[in-house]
Amino acid sequence: MNRVFNLFTFLILLVGGVHSLSAQANLLNARVPQDIGVLNDQQLESNDEKPLAYGYVDDRDLLWSKTVWEIIDLDERVNFPYYYPTDTLNLGPERRSLFDVLKKNLGSNNIKEVYKSAYFREKLTYEEIQERLVAVDTTDAGYEQFNADGFVDPQFIERRRITAAEIRQYKIKGTWYFDKRLGELKYRLLAICPVAPDVAIKKLPGEEEDLVELFWVWFPDARTSLNSNKVFNTRNSSQPITYDHMLNSRRFSSIIYKEENVYEDREVKDYIYEDALRMLLESERIKSVIRDYEQDMWNN
């Protein structure tokens, strides 16, 4: 019995060790700080950063499906891993927020499928994305100088940039479907969109923020990039989790704000006006319809 237990424990530690190589690799064996994170040949060979491929789903196996849009509110504590860190000056390169990961891989052209909306009709270039993240404005003193002298000093030019600290939400689009071959209800994440205050509008103190969608990323195209970046694990820092794993396993708190429907996919707020409680109840009702479908299949 003890031999079986010891073998089982060894296998768990071995698998866990393989997945944790990029957390603080070589931390306990480093002679100097520069050795931290340096992988040896065996670690590089076993550290496979490719995301787990989705299984093929034949259209004939889809008995039922429903596409929904959800909001991941970053003010909720359970969603903090997607928001932090916002200040990376004192942290290593392995600690980055979801927005920084997306932005970096957009700039390096690792993520190419980026769109203006969740219907994937109008594709965005990197230059167009940058325009949505940066606003250039002239201060009142600059206008006075221009009217008097005909030019504006650089000190009177104000540039506002959207950074990870300004991200308030993430919107996601995904499809719930019942696979009759497997006999279970499953979920497939299709797209993700960071949401932030409109950088083109200078908010005055006390004014409510006007949140806008920055860009929609086709999620399957971003999986490789997200799988190579880890989320800080508050329970065990030696066992980080990738962003790809976090999102695919739905390790977040979200609210459904829209479902596909005959009314041109109208949002919940379009038919429930200025009543936050009823909107929340409607979101829960939609969740119940999806959750109960699998139970109803087995009860019938």
Fold and architecture overview:
- The chain is of the alpha+beta class and 300 residues long.
- The model is unreliable at 1-22 (pLDDT under 50).
- It has helices at residues 2-19, 41-46, 80-83, 98-107, 126-133, 140-149, 219-227, 243-248, 268-271, 276-299; strands at 62-73, 114-115, 134-138, 157-161, 169-179, 184-197, 211-213, 216-218, 230-231, 241-242, 255-259.
- The longest helix is centred in the last third of the chain and has 24 residues, at 276-299.
- The protein has two domains: 1-48; 54-132 and 164-299, no CATH class.
- The strands form three sheets. Strands 1, 2, 5, 6, 7, 8 and 11 form a seven-stranded antiparallel β-sheet that branches. A two-stranded antiparallel ribbon has the order 3-4. The chain has a two-stranded antiparallel ribbon with strand order 9-10.
- It is globular and about 80 Å long.
- The protein contains ten helices and eleven strands.
- The chain starts with a helix and ends with a helix.
What features would you highlight for this structure?
single chain; 300 residues; alpha+beta; 2 domains; seven-stranded antiparallel sheet; two-stranded antiparallel sheet; 10 helices; 11 strands; 21% strand; globular; disordered N terminus
